[in-house]
Design brief:
Helix content is 34%, strand content 11%. The chain is built from 21 helices and 15 strands.
Length: 612
């Protein structure tokens, strides 16, 4: 049940809750033990579900409802008014049944029927808190959907293809789910990710599944440790459900991979909306899996667009964080000057919840030292539907393009931003700004150097292909990539240093780009820049390069679909991207959330409905 539906039935739920606060069924009592929640503020959803907390555990639970029930009739003249004043939701100076109803709406608790398809983290937590479902049941349901849908051709059109979004599922997933259920029974909801099944791109190290990078040459790369970001997810109680497919070694946007395939062959990932089309890349498997509801939340990596391309192709929300907000340690690199990992989700709320679990300074990734003191307690505190009110948002006119679908949706989005209270400022590109957009990816000059570092530190010692030459010798890779591997193997250390060294041309241009775009925001007092993330199953010029070529954060949010009148690809999604200042993810998340609430543009792919 959605948050809106829960609000609509709050009165009915209140009658049941007030009557059963101290007399719940054993299942519900176990799932929502109020007095022993082992929670940190960063783990809970804020502010809607925390700001009426009366018991000091940074969440609204049945314990808070019990406190307020005991104070029915209290007024401002009561000696203990301070104990419950925060929950006087109608501000009339008296605690009434209306205040109980208001408080009950802030509980992540729902005893209505649970629907897996399009379920958010809030939906999952509410249902698990109420004892309506469990992490084990949710995990089993996702595994069933993967088995039924991922490698099957469900699209009956002659051009239909399987999704091919998952490389492998985790044999330990159900055990992790049982652990999460036990944690909830003993301590309550200790994290917004507790028991939530997550798919991570198969370039994240996982100690319970091989990490192939999409290449058959690394099918046996079983690392002893998790990537730092995976550690954060496990610490939050998430269930690592599966490894998602990707464009081999994250090179391109088509998501072609050779993992677990016969030598000389490969598979392509398909969009769940139109399986004749690619899901984008390089995090295409993550994008297809999350959009088709094969996992709760996904994670990808982005060097030049690899989180945001599959997000726009598959009507998803993607966050490319500031370089240095999330550790890259234990992730197979493409170009560390621009690599960053982040969430791919069905909503901005889920993206904010997911991002909370994966930030932190990591000595193994020196770039993360820059985040110290710049990370909020929780990015969910920015989830304010009024965030656009009073904001100033700029857009560079040349970044809009002429594609009929993209231009129509962008123009409509600008109107919605303005209707929601934003001032939208058109900006004319300068030569220097265009130079930022034209700077290329570091993948050509950096891949060999950065891959060698990963091999030395992380690659399973039993894997034979330990260099680009070894990959070529193995014959187990996407056949069309042979010339790419050959050319990148020719890059010398001198070429690498001239490009990505401390005074290299690329290093210098990235710093210049960050300074220039930050100054653009400052000079015009802008909170963010916006631009289309793409076109129907395509990219919009060099727009995707703005974030990686400055290191600044971006969030991409669905803004609508192509219509037949556009004469493009009917039904294809296109996203709007918000870019902000370094380490100011909070602002772009807030703006993206408010835009999402204005549009609700995402649709679920009809080809992959609920099973049964």
């Amino acid at each position: 049940m959605t948050a809106k539906k829960r609000t609509a039935v709050a009165g009915t739920a209140l009658i049941a809750l007030v009557g059963t606060v101290l007399a719940a069924t054993p299942a519900i009592t176990a799932a929502a033990a109020p007095a022993a929640v082992d929670a940190s503020p960063a783990a809970m959803l804020a502010p809607y579900y925390t700001d009426l907390d009366l018991t000091g555990d940074d969440q609204v639970t049945r314990a808070d409802l019990a406190v307020l029930t005991d104070h029915l009739g209290a007024t401002t003249a009561s000696t203990d008014w301070a104990t419950v004043s925060a929950a006087d939701t109608d501000a009339d100076g008296t605690i009434t049944v209306a205040d109980l109803a208001g408080l009950s709406q802030r509980m992540i608790y729902d005893d209505g029927p649970f629907q897996l398809v399009e379920a958010s983290t809030i939906d999952m937590q509410a249902a698990m808190n109420a004892g309506v479902t469990t992490s084990v049941a949710i995990t089993e349901d996702y595994l069933d959907r993967i088995a039924a849908y991922d490698r099957a051709k469900v699209d009956t059109a002659s051009t239909g293809r399987p999704l091919n979004s998952i490389v492998t599922t985790n044999a330990d997933a159900l055990a992790a789910a049982r652990t999460a259920d036990a944690e909830r029974a003993e301590h309550g909801m200790t994290s917004m990710l507790l028991g939530v099944p997550i798919a991570v791109k198969d370039n994240y190290d996982t100690k319970d599944m091989p990490t192939t990078g999409g290449c058959g040459c690394w099918d046996d790369n079983q690392t002893d440790t998790d990537a730092a970001m995976v550690t954060g997810l496990r610490d939050a109680g998430a269930v690592i459900l599966a490894k998602a497919s990707l464009d081999e070694f994250a090179f391109g946007f088509v998501s072609e991979f050779s993992s677990n395939q016969p030598a000389g062959s490969s598979l392509l990932v398909a969009s769940p909306y139109n399986t004749a089309q690619t899901a984008g890349g390089s995090s295409g498997g993550t994008g297809a899996a999350i959009s088709a509801n094969l996992a709760g939340i996904g994670f990808g990596t982005d060097t030049g667009g690899s989180i945001r391309v599959p997000s726009t192709y598959n009507q998803l929300v993607g966050i490319r964080p500031t370089v240095g907000l999330t550790s890259r340690d234990g992730i197979i690199p493409l170009a560390l000057s621009q690599d960053t990992g982040g969430p791919i989700t069905r909503s901005v709320t889920d993206a904010a919840v997911a991002l909370d679990a994966v930030t932190g300074v990591d000595a193994a990734d020196p770039a993360t030292s820059a985040q110290a003191g710049k990370v909020p307690t929780s990015y969910t505190s920015s989830l304010d539907a009024d965030s656009l009110q009073g904001s100033r948002i700029g857009y560079v006119t040349s970044m809009v393009g002429t594609n009929a679908t993209t231009k129509r949706l962008f123009d409509a989005s600008v109107a919605k931003l303005e209707a929601a209270g934003a001032t939208v400022v058109p900006i004319t590109a300068t030569t220097a700004f265009n130079r930022v957009l034209s700077e290329g990816s570091g993948s050509t000059n950096e891949f060999k150097h950065d891959l060698d570092e990963y091999v030395a530190k992380h690659l399973d010692l039993d894997v034979a292909a330990r260099s680009l030459q070894g990959i070529l010798a193995s014959g187990e890779y996407v056949p069309s990539r042979k010339s790419t591997y050959q050319s990148r193997d020719l890059i010398t250390d001198a070429q690498y240093q001239a490009w990505a060294g401390p005074t290299g041309s690329h290093t210098t241009q990235l710093a210049t780009g960050k300074q220039l775009v930050t100054q653009m925001l400052d000079d015009q007092d802008l909170d963010a820049l916006v631009y289309p993330s793409g076109t129907p199953y395509g990219t919009q010029s060099t727009n995707m390069r703005l974030s990686p070529n400055t290191g600044m954060p971006a969030i991409t949010v669905p803004m609508g679909q192509a219509t037949a009148a556009d004469n493009t690809i009917t039904g294809a999604g296109v996203n709007l991207e918000f870019l902000g200042r370094s380490f100011d993810e909070s602002t772009v998340i807030g703006l993206g959330y408010a835009f999402e609430q204005e549009t609700h543009a995402r649709t679920a792919p009809a080809l992959y409905p609920a099973l049964g």
